[in-house]
Write a structure and sequence with these properties.
Blueprint (H helix, E strand, L loop, with lengths): L15 E10 L2 E12 L4 E5 L4 H4 L1 H11 L8 E7 L11 H12 L4 H4 L2 E3 L2 E2 L5 E2 L4 H10 L4 E5 L3 H4 L6 E5 L2 H7 L34 H13 L3 E4 L6 H5 L2 H4 L5 H13 L13 E2 L7 H5 E2 L5 E2 L1 H4 L4 E4 L7 H5 L2 H6 L1 E5 L4 E5 L3 E6 L18 H8 L4 H4 L4 E4 L5 H6 L8 H18 L13 H4 L12 H8 L5 H18 L6 H11 L4
Parallel strand pairs: 3-4, 5-8, 8-9, 10-17, 10-18, 11-14, 14-17
Antiparallel strand pairs: 1-2, 2-4, 6-7, 12-13, 15-16
């Protein structure tokens, strides 16, 4: 049998052919129809429909892949249109769909076999298929668009199969796909191109019991984990702020349902290898030199998720928070409020989830010694104020718990013993029990933890704290000690304290404790 299939193929050639691919916009995507048409002009291949640079280079990849797969490119001029033309298309994931449409114009691939199939994958020059970032959200978008089948590279089979309700076909090469769809060629075994390495989720190797002293800080961590509250730890170097923060993810429950799928889709967009749903809350701890685009998301070409999105469902930790630029810190205000981040560019925009738990750690001054009993601060008052003013008032107003963390003294170290320490396992049981109580109370609503509940719902008379318990909070609001947002955050904290205590509704003690945790002098 001939090693090449010419333009005269088993079925009568058609002057036009179609295939489908996915254009991703954040975690969502839309169907892109790929139309290929032959015309009587100078032979060549032209790609239209707002392709970016990587996609425009598909012309060379497709030509080489087609010829190395045992076919011949059409001898007429070929125009490939990506529709809708007004939607920007990014990346090499359209290669496979373009090749299928090209082979459809020659009749090599029968149009009846294409149907409502979606094609995702990059072509190597030798015709093998290479995995691309974002396969999982692309498969989810195809299913939501009503498509019944998707073709992906062999390396992406496990990732694509995580979405139910759509048939996944994994092929190693363009030749293997063409044979599957009617091409009269002998199969050739090829080595599939491997995907990126899969980052395994390992159990936490650190334990809350490693923390000596600082019982108040440990309890504040448990409260924050139980209600999903944001936390600021202020204290000198060596007080254990970072040590405490790194133990936060282990206190949180496993991700399930849509939260697990979203976290896995985000990891897929970031180019990580995927073979199963993510079950543990993510952890992001960017360096203080990170740009606004690195934290929020963006990029000059394709819009990529930032740290706030990669931390969605988990913890975003900003160590040495005042060292971050003011623009970066203030850019957190909108996602903290809405749980979403919308990144706009001149020709496109993308919406990403950003429902993370923010943990900030800061020194009290540039030298770190202000307020300590064992050190002398060398900073001028103006320098201290300028340093902490980098954490703006609107940002601090969105932080539920503000905690002072001091160094452990020699006396505390002598008194500490293994029995007095709280292990992660014990603390996590308390967190899970409190979250179960909150989920039961909030059943029938869109919320599952106290931090998600809007203030209007909390202030309803049916959900009033115990008799007279809110009087101190109302007095603080009247004296402008707290804003209305702060008032609602105190209520959320009080409900979390009640859940941890196993009582039906917060009383005066819970409101008072929540006010103390909210105080910047706490």
């Amino acid at each position: 049998m001939s090693t090449a299939v010419s333009a005269v193929a088993p079925s009568a050639p058609a002057s036009t052919a179609r295939a489908a691919a996915i254009a991703l916009e954040g975690l969502t995507g839309r169907i892109v129809e790929i139309e290929a048409a032959l015309t009587n002009q100078t032979p060549g291949l032209r790609l239209v429909g707002m392709p970016d640079t990587a996609l425009r280079e598909a012309q060379a990849r497709v030509r080489s892949a087609v010829e190395h797969s045992g076919f011949e490119m059409p001898s007429r001029h070929l125009t490939v249109n990506l529709s809708p033309a007004a939607v920007p298309k990014h990346g090499s994931g359209f290669d496979l769909g373009i090749a299928v449409a090209v082979l459809g114009t020659t009749g090599v691939i029968e149009r009846e076999t294409v149907g409502d199939t979606v094609y995702v994958g990059e072509l190597g020059l030798d015709g093998r298929l290479r995995p691309v970032p974002g396969v999982l959200p692309a498969v989810r978008a195809a299913r939501r668009a009503g498509r019944s089948r998707i073709v992906v590279p062999s390396a992406s089979e496990a990732e694509a199969s995580l979405v139910d309700g759509i048939e996944v076909i994994a092929v190693p090469s363009l030749r293997a796909l063409a044979i599957r769809q009617g091409a009269d060629l002998d199969p050739i075994d090829v080595e599939p191109v491997p995907g990126p390495p899969v980052l395994r989720e390992h159990p936490a190797r650190t334990d809350l019991a490693d923390v000596v002293g600082n019982a108040e800080a440990i309890e504040a961590m448990i409260i924050a984990a139980a209600g999903g509250h944001h936390l600021l730890m202020l204290g000198p170097p060596g007080a254990g702020k970072t040590m405490l923060a790194t133990r936060m993810p282990a206190l949180l429950p496993d991700l399930i349902g849509d939260a697990a799928l979203d976290a896995t889709c985000i990891a897929s967009l970031a180019g990580q290898g995927i073979d199963r749903l993510r079950s543990r809350p993510p952890w992001q701890a960017p360096h203080h030199s990170a740009s606004e685009a690195a934290i929020i998301g963006g990029g000059s070409g394709r819009i990529r998720p930032g740290a706030v999105t990669r931390a969605s469902g988990g913890v975003l930790f900003l160590d040495e928070a005042p060292q971050f630029s003011a623009a970066v810190l203030d850019s957190l205000r909108q996602p903290l409020e809405s749980g979403m981040v919308s990144v706009h560019r001149a020709a496109a925009h993308a919406d990403f989830p950003a429902r993370f738990q923010l943990v900030l750690a800061a020194n009290p001054c540039p030298c770190g010694q202000w307020g300590t009993t064992d050190g002398v601060c060398s900073c001028a008052p103006a320098a201290r104020k300028r340093y902490l003013d980098r954490l703006s008032g609107p940002l601090l107003d969105r932080i539920d718990i503000r905690l002072r963390v001091d160094r452990v003294t020699a006396a505390q170290l002598r008194l500490a013993d293994d029995l007095s320490r709280v292990s992660t396992a014990v603390a996590r049981e308390r967190v899970l029990a409190a979250r179960d109580r909150a989920a039961h109370r909030l059943s029938g609503t869109p919320w599952r933890i106290n931090a998600q509940v809007p203030g209007g719902w909390l202030r309803h008379p049916d959900r009033e704290p115990a008799d007279g318990a809110r009087l101190p909070l109302e007095a603080a609001l009247e004296r402008k000690v707290v804003t209305l947002r702060g008032h609602d955050k105190v209520l959320r904290l009080a409900w979390t304290l009640a859940d941890l205590a196993g009582i039906d509704r917060p009383g005066r003690a819970e409101i008072g404790r929540a006010l103390t945790l909210r105080s910047p002098d706490a």
